[in-house]
Specification:
Radius of gyration: 25 Å
Number of strands: 16
InterPro entries: AB_hydrolase_1, AB_hydrolase_fold, Pept_S33_TAP-like_C, Serine_prot/Carboxylest_S33
Keywords: Hydrolase
Distance between the termini: 34 Å
Helix content: 25-40%
Family: Belongs to the peptidase S33 family.
Number of helices: 21
Pfam family, one: Abhydrolase_4
């Protein structure tokens, strides 16, 4: 409902206010207005692509897992939607169809509903199928003269679980390809379809935001920009360097994408979700939103309260924080410290040296938690003054540097399944062996020079979209001086030496309004609108990005419109440190709409980090060596899988 949101004072038919990029020597903001039809033409030229209709549009792409066999008209093989300037997109889309089902993207068999004879006679029986689709939506919802075009996807089941992995910048289509089968099984016993979409500016949605022509160009500057405060020669010099680069980065975004930065706020993404619901033909939205996706979900629920169906928000943010300068960065820093001490180190000692290499200590002696923390901090501290040389076959000579290793630790806290590999790397680093560290760090780069040259240029990733969304959502908090930001950086790194620097990426917002003085719309309403159906919140005790208190704060505001599961476990969201209790509540809610009776319900993870999958005999964990041999555990392969999985959440800063 539009009245639930706060719109910028831009009236129908009046010119949009925009601002050209200022020259380095010109520190004054200059603004100009133009007639509406000219503004529309400028938008089209600056985005380089637009639809054949009279007004600019945005195209949302989606991937879905359907639980029944598609008809012969389903374009299962298509991977990219037609270009925005395609005058006949439906015709172009249809041409991509391959009628041979052997070429389609089938899911794994869930044969409980099919007989052996059916499975033998039909190789596709009991298997879902992955399909692609797209939806045209207005680039600017505040321009009421824009006609809407909606093209939906095949509808197969009574409900479609719409999913989003977060970010901002996480790809919903990649999330669907990677996790849809697990999600439909976990939440509905394989009964419902799953649809993931790329939010505006992300991945295959058009126009996609990337302010560098190639990922290698972004990687070129990463080492200098990611230098942590304690490792900088001068904090003032480092801050000035980051400030200059942030200005250059947003200038590049303006030059490549023009006014697009005005149209990527969470409020507009919520409007896109409503268009997806309409295109699906469902009266209410069924959804599973994770991390920043919970921010989309909160905004959606309060903008469209009568469209809310069975909506799960897992890894719960509190979007009021995002309205403050730097709020997206500092909201969970203390939780990172707890996850490090109680989780990564504490559970390592509990598991013992058979299961966690770091528990062996420097000289094979048992350590207290305090001693282990000091030893690891000493290992890392030495890297500040003297990085260690490393060699990998893929990259050749490299250096193991403090800022990179600490950033990798922070990323690892998102996923406790990566902890065993990380503990092995840190243990070997403490004994002078840099091989694993070199392998781990090179896995974090976007650019891969070992891949063969493509006939067409690889589309760069959408990392800058994260900045545009975060900064637009907080655009109207008062401007801050460099001194204020320097003090904020100091406070954040004091709160968390692991995450304070990485989360300081919000410093870039200093330059957002230089190019986009105001987004077309942001949501500034309350979060307690009466919903058609209550939502189910999940918040984790040791989540390094969205702490349990976020869920409790949101629950306190939403009241009877929500229930909360306090998931006692590690990692970001409940899907990593799994709990049968949590999963049972989620499935009951999605299938039957039944919520827990209490406002807050406690659930506990089924296993402990470092002991995942370890068989227990007589109450004791089995031998790590036996498990490693049986499973073929490879710390490098484990780490690379972790990096691929966490990239679903969006860019790393």
């Amino acid at each position: 409902m539009e009245e639930a949101s706060t719109l910028m004072p831009e009236k129908k038919g009046q010119p949009a206010e925009r601002q050209p990029p200022s020259r380095p020597q010109d520190q004054q903001r200059q603004r100009f207005t133009v007639p509406n039809y000219v503004w529309q033409a400028i938008i089209a030229m600056e985005l380089l692509r637009h639809t054949a209709a009279a007004h600019p549009r945005h195209r949302v792409s989606a991937a879905s897992l359907n639980r029944t066999i598609p008809s012969a008209s389903s374009p299962a093989r298509a991977r990219a939607s037609p270009a925005l300037d395609d005058p006949n997109p439906d015709t172009s889309w249809a041409k991509l169809f391959d009628p041979n089902p052997d070429h389609w993207n089938w899911g794994n068999r869930t044969a409980s509903s099919t007989s052996a004879s059916e499975r033998n006679s039909d190789p596709y029986a009991g298997r879902g199928i992955y399909m692609c689709g797209y939806l045209d939506v207005p680039l600017d919802y505040t321009n009421k003269s824009d006609p809407r075009i909606a093209r939906g996807w095949p509808k197969k089941t009574e409900r479609t679980i719409v999913i989003n992995p977060g970010g901002p910048g996480g790809s919903g289509t990649e999330y669907a390809w990677r996790a849809a089968e697990d999600i439909t099984e976990r939440l509905s016993g394989g009964r419902y379809d799953v649809l993931g979409w790329d939010p505006r500016g992300v991945n295959t949605s058009q126009p996609a935001v990337s302010c560098f022509p190639h990922d290698a160009d972004r990687d070129r500057w990463a080492l200098a920009m990611l230098k942590h405060r304690v490792a900088a020669v001068s904090n003032k010099m480092q801050l000035d360097l980051m400030d200059a680069f942030n200005a250059a980065r947003f200038r590049a975004c303006w030059e490549r994408h023009g006014d697009l930065g005005r149209f990527v706020s969470t409020a507009f993404v919520a409007r896109d979700v409503e268009e997806i619901r309409k295109a699906l033909g469902e009266e209410e939205l069924t959804g599973f939103m994770v991390s920043y996706g919970t921010g989309i979900g909160q905004t959606y629920a309060n903008m469209f309260p009568n469209s809310v169906g069975r909506l799960i928000l897992d890894g719960t943010e509190y979007v009021r924080d995002h309205r403050l300068a730097g709020g997206f960065g500092w909201t969970a820093l203390d939780n990172v410290t707890d996850a490090w001490h109680d989780g990564f180190l504490g559970e390592c000692l509990k598991a013992g040296p058979e299961h966690c290499a770091l528990a062996k200590g420097a000289e094979g002696k048992s350590l207290t938690l305090f001693e282990l923390d000091v030893w690891v901090r000493d290992i890392l501290g030495d890297l500040i003054s003297y990085p260690l040389p490393a060699y990998t076959e893929k990259s050749g000579a490299s250096l193991v540097m403090y800022s990179e290793v600490v950033a990798a630790i922070y990323q690892s806290l998102y996923n406790p399944h990566s902890w065993k590999a990380l503990a092995q790397m840190l243990y070997e680093l403490g004994h002078g062996n840099t091989t694993l560290a070199g392998e781990f760090l090179e896995a974090l780069w976007e650019y891969d020079p070992t891949l063969p040259c493509a006939t067409t240029s690889k589309k760069p990733s959408s990392e800058e979209l994260t900045l545009m969304v975060v900064c637009s959502d907080a655009y109207d908090d008062k401007e801050r001086s460099l001194e204020w930001w320097n003090n904020q950086w100091k406070i954040m790194t004091k709160q968390s030496w692991i995450a304070g620097d990485s989360r300081f990426f919000v410093f870039a917002c200093q330059h957002y309004t230089t190019y986009w003085p105001k987004p077309a719309e942001v949501y500034r309403g309350d979060l307690n609108n009466t919903l058609k159906n209550p939502v189910l919140l999940v918040a984790e005790t040791y989540d390094p990005a969205t702490p349990l208190r976020n869920g409790r704060r949101l629950l306190g505001e939403m009241g009877e419109n929500a229930r909360l599961i306090a998931h006692h476990g590690y990692g970001h969201s409940s899907g990593r440190d799994r709990s049968a209790c949590t999963d049972a509540h989620l499935k009951t809610y999605i299938l039957d709409g039944t919520l827990p009776e209490d406002q807050e319900t406690d659930c506990y993870a089924d296993e402990k980090p470092y002991l995942y999958g370890v068989k227990r005999e007589g109450g004791e964990a089995g031998s790590l060596a036996a498990v490693a041999v049986a499973s073929g555990f490879d710390p490098v392969a484990s780490w690379r899988e972790h990096v691929r999985e966490t990239r679903l959440l969006g860019p790393r800063f």
